[in-house]
Amino acid sequence: MNDSRELILNTSLRLFLQKSFKEVTMKEIVTETGMSKGAFYHYFSSKEQVFEEVINFFYGDVMAVKYGSFPKDSLRAFYNEYIAHIERQMKTAKYAMGADFTTNHYMLIFDGLRMLPHFREEHTERQKEEMKAWTDIVRIARKKGEIKSDMTDSQIAKMFIYSGDGVGINFIMSDSLHKAAREIHPLWDGLYNMLKG
After folding, report:
1. pTM as predicted
2. Average pLDDT in the 162-186 region?
3. For the segment 15-28, what is each residue's pLDDT rounded down to a tens digit?
4. CATH value at residue 50
5. DSSP secondary structure letters along 69-123
6. Both 180 and 158 in a single domain?
7. Residue 14 is part of which domain span?
């Protein structure tokens, strides 16, 4: 991606997060980038096109989770790498948009889900990939004797996924997401130790 295009996407993302899709104008985006109208319109012809690219760039590239790169030999190693990965993503996102995660991220996601049918489909696929990755590592951990529990692999996977989501939402609502990893780590350690039973 070239620098001008990335500048437009990062600037637009910041504006969409500060306000909302409806409140941001093309004129405002152009002004905030510091580009001429001609240079800007070389890349994008409408606010809707910018918004779609922002959603694709931020949630498809910057915030994508590559579960295949996580350790496959231990549930504990898997979730530790997951936490480290999320911390790296938050730093990358903060650098890209110049701000921490806020409740406006949910508004951006909801706008994306409402306006972009392909985003809803991609979001659903990402949820399936997440569930499969967690279920697979739980199955491996069970076979290796790392965990012992009467809960199904799927139930255990959901415990990790939903508790992580809940902690994230809780801290976003209080504008302190940077504390989430410090909270989720001991929570997941406790869950893991309970499952070792």
Report:
1. 0.82
2. 77
3. 888 888 889 999 99
4. 1.10.10.60
5. GS-SS-HHHHHHHHHHHHHHHHHHHHHHHSS---THHHHHHHHHHHH-HHHHHHH
6. yes
7. 3-54
